[in-house]
Amino acid sequence: MIGDSLSAGTGDRSAGYGSGGWSERLGDILRQVRPDLVYLNTAVVGATTRDTLGQQMDRVREFVPDLLHLPCGANDLLRRSPDFDEIERDMRVMYDQAAATGAQLTTFTLGRAYVVPVFPDWTARVVTLNDITRRLARAYGAVVVDMWDHPVNARQNLLSADGVHFTTSGQAVMATAMVRALAAVLACRTT
User: Is 30 helix (H, G, I), strand (E, B) or coil?
Assistant: First the structure.
């Protein structure tokens, strides 16, 4: 895993759910199938795509992953006026470098529930970024878990107190959605 707080699985605990984020849950699930799994998460809260490239990619390349989750640029949207051409260029470089590892790539789109009210054009920003994420994922064969229209967005207890990150109930849904998406890819490879 590389990227930001979404990759890290940051979020408040929900009643009835363990404390792990989606990425930790995914690692636990994969260990049930592959007990020898070695897991590396270099994600840093607040990282932009450019930060990820400059501070995390070298370590990931040295790790030589089989599976690599890429961030979807959520923190890139927090500028006063995001430059979507620049964001796409940075994300493309990240995808190029990640693809060169030979790993199966994965990513998420941002959900509707993620809102930053200080930006009146927030929904348009997220829609644009999600389109970039989907386009790059298609071009590089990355597995995409599309959270934009996912039913989890309607949960009243979805967001943590910060109003940004999913609680552990949402993290559990994200982990489950990723397992399903990866299972579908594996099923296609074995048929």
Answer: helix
Residue 63: phi, psi to the nearest 5?
-70, -30
Residue owning tokens 């390349």: 61
Provide the whole-model pTM: 0.92
pLDDT tens digits along 76-135: 999 999 999 999 999 999 999 999 999 999 999 999 988 888 899 999 999 999 999 999
> Any bridge partners for residue 67, and if so which?
104
- How far apart, in whole angstroms, are the C-alpha atoms of residue 37 and residue 31? 6
Distance CA 100, CA 18 (A): 35
The per-residue DSSP string of 46-99 comes to T--HHHHHHHTHHHHHHH--SEEE----GGGGGSSS--HHHHHHHHHHHHHHHH
Q: Find the mean pLDDT for residues 158-183.
A: 92
Give the single-character DSSP code of 166: B
- Please, which residues have CB within 8 angstroms of residue 92's CB and are 6 or more apart in sequence? 136
Residue 191 has pLDDT above 80, yes or no: no
Q: Which helix (H) or strand (E) holds 108?
A: strand 104-108
Residue 188 near residue 32 (C-beta atoms within 8 A): no
